[in-house]
């Protein structure tokens, strides 16, 4: 995840010098979209029940996904 202080934006301004748009390097833009996607997924799954780590590990071992 990138930090706001890591951004290197350029700005498009109007005739009065007011910032109207932002230009980001493509890599920063793609990372920002990925972070937004991750946050949206977390929000969608917020109300799902929590499964204890121990139980998940037991199920994975039982199903042969992990060695005993």
UniProtKB/TrEMBL annotation:
<protein>
    <recommendedName>
        <fullName>Antitoxin</fullName>
    </recommendedName>
</protein>
<dbReference type="InterPro" id="IPR049537">
    <property type="entry name" value="RelB-like"/>
</dbReference>
<dbReference type="Pfam" id="PF18506">
    <property type="entry name" value="RelB-like"/>
</dbReference>
